[in-house]
Amino acid sequence: MQRRRAHRGCLLGTGVAVAGGALLLSACGTTAVSDNGPSPAHTSSIVCAERGRLAASGSSAQQNAMKHWMREYTEACPGVEIRYVPIGSGGGVAQFLRGVTVIGGTDSPLKPDEVERSREACRGGRAIDLPMVGGPIAIGYNLTGVKDLVLDAATLAKIFDSDITMWNAPEIQWLNPGIQLPATPISAVHRSDESGTTQNLNAYLAGAAPEEWPYPKGKTWQAKGGRSAAGSGGVASQVQGIDGAIGYFELSFAKAKGLPAVRLDTGAAEPVAVSAETASAGIATAHVSGAGKDMTLTFDHRTRASGAYPIVLVTYEIVCDSGNQADVLPALKSFLTYTASEEGQGELSRIHYAPLPDDVAARVRQVVSGLS
């Protein structure tokens, strides 16, 4: 039996002038090497910059995706250094606007005043939002004897606003015929810190159940009652430890804790389970509402599309559309082209993220190619 090992190499390509500097590209691929010599295997599509240092910070929701991308890219392109600090969306935006980083990760697009402030960091240009990865927000629960639970937006809103307080309430029982729901008090758990996850749940409930959810689409929780915990990990831990608890967090936390997740009755023919695939279908219902090169997405939270999960957190990479430093630009374009590529998006489902729909990813790559 032959032993094989993976080897990734880069062949120096052609120099291309970009913004007054030379962009030396390298076509990088992976070859399987056996005891009898190299043989064809997976070929990487990464096109490398020869060198560069990229400083980035922001959203912790995309931390694991960034780890994956950075590992794959720097293995293929050893001349480029990338550093990402997961300090949260607010910190990522703040550092980008101060010119500390060239990429800021945020779970919500820039506000108009932030775009104006970005003109100082982007000499002759402005910051734009590029969607790069989706994160399904699971509604996880812990209820003895119940492993399959269906809720709709209105019922979910009443639960998180403490208007429904028992699991055998008629509204829940009506959505779950044939299931014996226990007379257990509901412990609804929300985030205590400002959070893009909270913002996206607020946006969903306000869009899909406006009469039951009168609260702003902000990062701060304002509904009444319930328990609180810091971070998605804290919410998931509380739900795991309390019979009758329900909370919201990225799908990866539900998987890590072994918690079942609610199927959502969106009005489609069948309730929609949360997964990377159904979240990607949810992203596909959004439309680009940003101006110019900005790719801010606006979601249809009332969608009834079959198999489309509507509670999705999209993380944007904030970059300058122009005014990037010449010694950074080649690496910036190379890395972001990879993350938005079929190869870069292809592994995301395995780590519980939602890949961008093909048309959105293609448009992101087109915008990246025009950065200057």
Detailed description of the structure:
- The chain has a domain at 136-283: D-Maltodextrin-Binding Protein, domain 2 (3-Layer(aba) Sandwich), CATH 3.40.190.
- With 372 residues, the chain is an alpha/beta fold.
- It starts with a strand and ends with a helix.
- α6 links the parallel β10 (187-191) and β11 (227-229).
- The strands form four sheets. An eight-stranded mixed sheet has the order 6-5-7-16-8-12-10-11. Strands 1, 2, 3 and 4 form a four-stranded antiparallel sheet that branches.
- The protein has helices at 63-76, 89-97, 112-121, 153-160, 170-175, 196-208, 231-241, 251-257, 276-284, 329-339, 342-346, 358-369; strands spanning 4-18, 21-34, 37-40, 47-49, 52-58, 80-85, 103-106, 127-142, 150-152, 187-191, 227-229, 245-250, 263-265, 287-288, 297-298, 312-320.
- The protein is elongated and about 65 Å long.
